[in-house]
Amino acid sequence: MPQGQPEVVPDDGLTTRQRRNRPLTIVHTGIGKGKSTAAFGLALRAWNQGWPVGVFQFVKSAKWKVGEERALRVLGASGEGGTVAWHKMGEGWSWVQRSPESSEEAAVEGWQQVKRDLAAETYRLYVLDEFAYPMHWGWVDTEEVVSVLRDRPGTQHVVITGRNAPPALVGAADLVTEMSKVKHPMDSGQKGQRGIEW
Amino acid sequence: MPQGQPEVVPDDGLTTRQRRNRPLTIVHTGIGKGKSTAAFGLALRAWNQGWPVGVFQFVKSAKWKVGEERALRVLGASGEGGTVAWHKMGEGWSWVQRSPESSEEAAVEGWQQVKRDLAAETYRLYVLDEFAYPMHWGWVDTEEVVSVLRDRPGTQHVVITGRNAPPALVGAADLVTEMSKVKHPMDSGQKGQRGIEW
């Protein structure tokens, strides 16, 4: 990516500094690889800036992304950059005492915590991994998500990943990338392998 | 990404284990964000497996990706995962004594080193960042790259990023993802910001 020169100067009454520090809502969607991986790559940049990073994994399986999790935990504990908090739905959210009765309930509990953290400005970067699914399935109301993100205080960046990102979310987001599958080894019978898929 | 069940079982005479450990050539291309970021995310998984990781940045500017570089250097030095070697064309490759006369010469020198490292099996994961460009521009011969990758020894995974990945490379790769731009803040005059763009 070359150094970004804006194509137009917006007429929004903001200074360049204000515009530069605008909180961003970022969406990685599509059926290709790299949606989550790129989100965790962004977390490296946030860590380097010394920002507190909060990861919320909206997936039931804890098998995947163990590499990213361990790396970000080691970085967060290194004292050289920002802190990292890693929350996993698959193991039960740490702030919930009892087991949720369904994935839907668990997803809603995750979103409630994200709302509390946004209100408290707990993190500077939020990785809401696979959060597109609960919206797509109607478990979490997309309009509410859009509204909460629009009104969030401070400069908190939010990255949401997952296939089937709802159109209303895409419409409200600042930066949207679609990852398309051109070719995948599983198409020709290759199984997932460690170090690559997890 | 759900757990991958292959759609077909290939008739290639390989055992599942052999197939599982097949070295992969991965390409991230397209005009959207996340090509390099996802590649560095993959490097986290490799690090977690204890693999030696070699990064070759085929870009002249050293400004970008400072976050990923620092994070991976800290991880590589942590003793908890694999090692990380980070080579930057922008600052002059460390193995070249004199300054290259052109970007083309520098890119060729980078590729020569990658070839030596592949032959020596120096790394288990190679991130050839922005390496699609020197191929696209004809500085490095794509057919030679394809041939060297096809014949590389051992189980060395290679990730190549950059817009305009040559068709011959895409054809030879095992996993290709195209990152498409759906929406970008620079379109509406937003400038790049730290923690997000670098």
Automatic annotation (TrEMBL), chains A, B:
A GO BP entry: cobalamin biosynthetic process
Which Gene3D superfamilies did the record assign?
P-loop containing nucleotide triphosphate hydrolases
Top-level taxon in the UniProt lineage: Bacteria
Which one of the record's GO molecular function terms can you name? corrinoid adenosyltransferase activity
Locate the region Disordered.
Answer: 1-21
**Keyword entries, A-Z:** Transferase
What the entry lists under InterPro entries is as follows: CblAdoTrfase_CobA, P-loop_NTPase
| Protein name per UniProt | Cob(I)yrinic acid a,c-diamide adenosyltransferase
Organism (species): Actinacidiphila paucisporea
